[in-house]
Amino acid sequence: TAQDGEEVGKRILQRNLREADIDPGDEQHVQLQVVNSDQFNQVIAHLAEEGKHDLLIIGASNSSFLRRRLFGTVPNRLLDSDDPLAVAVMRSGRSLTHRLRNRVEQFCRLRVPQLAREERIALFERLHTQSRWSFDFMVLILLSTAIAALGLIQNSTAVVIGAMLVAPLMTPLLGAGLALVQGNFPLMRTCFRSILFGFVAAVGVGAAAGLLAPITELTAELLNRGGPTLLDMGVAFLSGIAASYCIARPTLSSALAGVAIAAALVPPIATVGISVALGDRANAQGASLLFTTNVVAIILGAALNFYVAGIRPSKEKNSRLWVTRSLAGLILLLALLVVPLGSTVVSKLADRFFHQPRRVPIELKQEFEAIFESAGLDHSKLRFAPLQFEADQIRLRCFIEAGREPSSQTLKLLAEKSALMLAGDLAVDIELITDLVVRSGARSKSKAESNLKDKN
Predict the structure, then answer these.
(1) Backbone region of residue 206 per phi and psi (left: phi > 0; alpha: psi in -120 to 50; beta: other values)
(2) Which end of the chain is more exposed for a tag (fewer CB within 10 A), N or C?
(3) Please, what sign has the CA dihedral across residues 94, 95, 99, 101?
């Protein structure tokens, strides 16, 4: 009710006066008055016409409220009369987040070239048009996936690179970054629709290629996309920044081809379909993880660049709310992706700092040379591959050129020496590869391999 509103207003005034070290009970100097009205301008005019006050203090929640309610609507006669009324405005202190954001925006305006209004309009029109799911978009996604699938199956890096140039998925990712900064929900919905439909169509093409392909095992190109790391996340994030920077400035559009190659989008999707068709779920999961990482990192990288370039979000409350939630969700998802992506890096660091050296010790090389010399085998071209530490064993591979294969007794001595000098409690898996050389000096293409396991 109005009476309750006046009582609440008085209590607020009393609290504010106490915070200012003013006694609200001092009736000689302080008179509390609360007016309950929805006509803000009429109240100001009434107080001014009474002539009882020299100073009017108004509490404003923000600057837009001040401009809208005060300077644009108060009659000029209140300020131009013989006995004018002085008006002061107070607002609450700005939060730390607000002050930091203002400083960042000011730094960007001074240090980074900002996009002009015409450039922002052209950027929006370009991304909005090219991000739609259309017949042209569908054709390009199907063709690029088919090319990528053939390149992956043939283990051809050049063909895979060609597929990256045809793929249209980079545009809706940049559009999603722009929508995130603008607070443009319709554009965000359009971009995610294209990304989702493109992913489903590309997986279908990859699965069909895997079923028709004359292969039974994954090629090296397919395996490379099944084990993403934190480095792939870094590449995707930087690619999002570079692509958004180039597309916002038409003079740099020629660099988009290189960015498309760096941020591979279609090959991981094709790998998902082919791996599923060949029954390798682990590789399909790794490729899916790589694609998800690329999508999230590119959107965040593009949003960061657009914000730095002068694009600001809408001030509407509903717009700010979904932007904040979407941004928090993407950052949280990116943080969660760090766990699986960092496992490979952590394992390599653990091998470097906590495991034995990967190089074969010089003492073991000397023992091998002595064994080969006693067996009458040439050891001048003896070579060792780096040691591979696994869960319960150590892999040792060595290569030798000889006119005959080593005897079983020689192989047994090699295994005993390796287990004694390397293993500890682990098993040693020795793989000896022998290049047979005929007496005339010509090298035979046949190879003899021997695998031995022994424990110390």
Answers:
(1) alpha
(2) N
(3) negative
